[in-house]
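> forwarded from #structure-qc
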């Protein structure tokens, strides 16, 4: 059902919440960070997480005060009951497998069609590695246990999982309210999720093209989970577990494949 809130109030909601990552994207593209976004100490990491939550909460509340979006519009209902946790775990595993399969098929297609050689793909990967060092302090993950466990818990499930899925659901709500003919149907929701995934991937461009593509695909998978269950919570669990396992594996990966500039 189309919202009865005036369109201008939904525009405020959409511009505030939907555009939340845009300033950070512009800064990340034009200013090379000297230090990882997630500071190297446990205290610094907690301060940064707190600042991020405060800023997002203010932006989210201002957007919500304008639109007065309902619980259902923001997909905040806990669905599907006790299945949320096991589904989140299963989806997290499926996403990781899905990304690996997509990567394998893409490489295989490029080789079979001779659009690229193995040497050129290896060279591209070497020249364009995911700049994880711009996000997280790899040495701190290896040596600082407080930093390590904060990354696996607060950063993964709150800063990434909860915050980003709230952003995704609220952005979708704004698109549905502003352009109901385009995005109210299930097909329209799917198109909206693709567009939101592209924006989510673009927000990761400061970490490199490959990281942005992977983030876009991750956002697409999470968006599908969100609209299938009409709830953010399975996606929050899946997102948090995906990031937590990634952080857990990074020290091992970093010891074998040092990051440029690390």
């Amino acid at each position: 059902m189309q919202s009865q809130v005036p369109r201008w109030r939904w525009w405020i909601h959409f511009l505030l919440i939907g555009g939340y990552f845009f300033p950070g994207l512009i800064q990340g593209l034009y200013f090379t960070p000297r230090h990882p976004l997630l500071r190297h100490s446990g205290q610094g990491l907690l301060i940064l997480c707190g600042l991020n939550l405060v800023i997002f909460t203010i932006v989210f509340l201002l957007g919500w005060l304008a639109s007065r979006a309902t619980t259902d519009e923001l997909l905040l209902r806990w669905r599907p009951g006790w299945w949320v946790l096991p589904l989140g775990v299963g989806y997290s595993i499926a996403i990781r497998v899905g990304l690996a399969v997509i990567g394998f098929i893409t490489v295989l297609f490029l080789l079979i069609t001779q659009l690229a050689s193995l040497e050129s793909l290896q060279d591209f990967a070497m020249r364009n590695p995911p700049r994880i060092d711009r996000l997280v302090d790899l040495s701190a993950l290896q040596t600082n246990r407080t930093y390590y466990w904060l990354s696996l818990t607060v950063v993964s499930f709150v800063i990434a999982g909860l915050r980003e899925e709230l952003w995704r659901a609220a952005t979708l709500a704004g698109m549905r309210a502003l352009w109901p003919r385009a995005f109210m149907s299930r097909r329209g929701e799917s198109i909206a999720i693709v567009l939101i995934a592209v924006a989510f991937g673009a927000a990761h461009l400061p970490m490199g093209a490959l990281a942005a593509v992977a983030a876009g695909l991750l956002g697409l998978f999470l968006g599908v989970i969100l609209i299938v269950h009409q709830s953010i919570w399975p996606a929050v669990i899946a997102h948090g577990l995906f990031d937590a396992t990634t952080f857990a594996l990074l020290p091992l990966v970093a010891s074998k494949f040092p990051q440029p500039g690390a």
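QC bot note: The first helix runs from residue 7 to 18. The chain has a mean pLDDT of 89.
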